[in-house]
Structure formats: C-alpha cells, structure tokens
Amino acid sequence: xxxxxxxxxxxxxxxxxxxxxxxxxxxxxxxxxxxxxxxxxxxxxxxxxxxxxxxxxxxxxxxxxxxxxxxxxxxxxxxxxxxxxxxxxxxxxxxxxxxxxxxxxxxxxxxxxxxxxxxxxxxxxxxxxxxxxxxxxxxxxxxxxxxxxxxxxxxxxxxxxxxxxxxxxxxxxxxxxxxxxxxxxxxxxxxxxxxxxxxxxxxxxxxxxxxxxxxxxxxxxxxxxxxxxxxxxxxxxxxxxxxxxxxxxxxxxxxxxxxxxxxxxxxxxxxxxxxxxxxxxxxxxxxxxxxxxxxxxxxxxxxxxxxxxxxxxxxxxxxxxxxxxxxxxxxxxxxxxxxxxxxxxxxxxxxxxxxxxxxxxxxxxxxxxxxxxxxxxxxxxxxxxxxxxxxxxxxxxxxxxxxxxxxxxxxxxxxxxxxxxxxxxxxxxxxxxxxxxxxxxxxxxxxxxxxxxxxxxx
Length: 458
Prior knowledge:
Elements: E1 4-10, E2 16-17, E3 33-39, H1 79-85, E4 94-99, H2 105-116, E5 122-126, H3 131-141, E6 149-152, H4 156-166, E7 170-174, H5 191-207, E8 211-216, H6 229-233, E9 236-241, E10 248-256, E11 264-270, E12 273-276, H7 280-283, E13 295-302, E14 305-317, E15 325-328, H8 332-346, E16 353-359, H9 371-383, E17 391-393, E18 396-397, E19 403-404, H10 409-418, E20 423-427, E21 440-444, H11 447-457
Parallel strand pairs: 4-8, 4-9, 5-6, 5-7, 7-8, 13-17, 15-16, 17-20, 20-21
Antiparallel strand pairs: 1-2, 1-3, 9-10, 10-11, 11-12, 13-14, 14-16, 18-19
Keywords: ATP-binding, DNA damage, DNA repair, DNA-binding, Hydrolase, Metal-binding, Nucleotide-binding, Stress response, Zinc, Zinc-finger
Family: Belongs to the RecA family. RadA subfamily.
Protein name: DNA repair protein RadA
C-alpha cells in the first residue's frame, strides 16, 4: 500500500502547509486550511498522463517550429460568447464558467453544445442532474438532441477513460464541484477534490486537444467556490451574472489567455433559453421620456467595444451628522474622493447631503472614465436641474481638478453618435481632430470648465 502524505491547503490562495494552523502564511486569511490527503505514488497531480496522448516522453521544440494552424478556433454558435472567449473556442483549452444558481450556466452550455454537435463530436457530462432531466430541458428549449452525447458520471478517471475511447472534440463537466478522484480521500466539493479533479481534467484536455468547459458554483459573496488555484490552472474564467428574476444575463471574462480580459457578452433569458443581444447599448438606454435631474449617459469601454449606460444620482438633504455615500455598480471609495474634488475645485459642497449613485441595468463600472459623468449627475441632482437626454460625458477626474483623457475616445464618440446623441462633454485630449457628423463635442481640461458647460445647457 502506498504511503500517504498529508498536507493542509488554503482555500483562498492554494498554498500548502505541513500542519494545520489558524492563519495562512501566504495570504494571511484565517480558518481557510483544509486537510489534503494524497498518495505519494499515485496522486493524480503527479501521475504521468502522457499515455492518453499516445506519447511516452515530451519533446522539446523551438518557438518558431510550432504549427499554429494545427489548432484553429471554431465558433460556439453565439457571437456574444465568441467575443468573450476571444474569437471562438480553442482546441485544448480549459474554460471555467461560474455563476449563481439560476443564472443559466447549464442552459447556455446545453444550447452551445447542441449547436456544436451538428458538426463536432461533443460529450456532455452531468454530475448534478440525471440524463432524463437534461433531456427534458433540451426538449423544453426546442433543441436538436439527436447528436449530442450525454454521460452521467462523477468519477474523473472513468470520464477520461470513456473520453479516450470516444475522442470528443468538446467536453462539458457540469459541475467541477461534484467530481471526485479515487486517490483523494476527502468528499467531493472539498478543496483537495476540486483541486485534483481540475488538474486531472485540464491536463487530459490539453494532451488530447479537447476543448473542456467546466461549470463552477459561487459562494454567497459572489466569488468562485473552491480553491483559488482552480482559476490558475484553467485558460479562461468567465462569470455569468444576472438576477434570477431578471431578464438579462451578462457573461464577462475575468481571465483569458486567448483574448481580452473583461470582455462582456449580453444575453436575454427567454422561454426558449438564452438569446444573444447584438446591441447591448439599446437595452441599457430605456430612459423615461421626461427629463429628470441626476440622470446622464456615459460611454464605458467593455473589452473591445464601447457600451452606453445610464448613470443616476440622488442628492438629498440629511439631518444626521454622517451623510450616506452609497454607490451601486460603481466604486464607493472613488465616489467619496470625487465629492472631495467637487468641493475643492468646483466650489460645490455636499457635506450635509446624502448621495446615492446607481448604474442602470445592473452593469458594474470599474474604469475611471465614469468620473466626469458621475460628477455631472450629482451636481444635476443637487441643483435640481435636468440635463439634456441627448448629452453624453466621459473622462477621468484627477485630484487637482484636471480632466484626464481615457482610451478609445473616438470609438466612444462614434458609438454615441450612432445612437442619436448630439452633445458630448469629453476631455480635451479626446476631442476628435475631424468633426463627427451630428455630434457637438465640448472639450474640457478642468472640472470648472465642465461645470460651466453644464450650466450653459440648463
């Protein structure tokens, strides 16, 4: 019998420790170490899997001798998903799709696999549902199900043995949290099982040029469940976000070795499954016909394309000594910083006002191009003066009151003009050299100039 080796693995950073302790030495997190028991001679992490590819030893090659044409991308059947993947599915890649329960992870993958099965050999492994449940969902969605191959199994070794026989082009593991490796003694879903199962499947996929999709669950705080090392061993990590009672879903890439990070795809949930939205800006601009103070449209850059979203601000007098500063879809600390800049360089004081900010549609904006639009929305609500519905604004605001340029300014302006906006307040460095038809651009270099331009339009 092989000698057992015991270690303790941190669920946050994946680091190993020889014995249990309350705090991880690497990430300093508390109570995150879990026991990890493996066999020294048969651990799947160190097992030689080269036999799956028909080779006994690896070969050293030069960078110039590698044939890039041998692994061309192929489409998933959804342009929005291809965009998030970086242009399509890469053979031999491992893609992790996470999301909250009811977001539509299994539905989206079932739709994609049914389309790919028309021309590819596809294997769908379900560990959480029975084959009848998957078949009922496919029938309810009206999908062609005569070519898709299904397997109900949670043993990783058995899955790889069957896949080696059927030689699929694409595999789906739904989900990685229920998979288990025989040599690991802990229960499925534990840190050690998720870690070893993902490493086993990822290496098998790469050596056999199989595109592997892994479904992952999220914790109550919205982060991916399981060890952090799970995100390190895969090639692409995507999150499918959206309220269970909402209509729209957003698919965003957080890691991608084959494309842009933070690329965004938008889908609409219907009775027949998820339908891609080709023009996301249109769904986020369903504004009220009546002009309201505190509302303005900004242009954010999501991955490789501009996106128009509405930002709303509400400034209201408060009698408490600690005014509220609440931001939904924006960074709250940055909003507090912008209020200080507004007081110092715009001579607008909101020390006795509650300030609330929200990005319409549930979009989360992380880039600094929303600074100028947020400031104008807050001033509009504070003065109770509505802004024009044909006005857009973007730009980064510095601590000294300067308006800094943002990347892809011309593309943002062109997207705004395409949707009928006629006025734009932008940083001076982002002003186009040639006029854009139908769009009046107001370049500003200081916050005071932006406030003056806003006052002239009231």
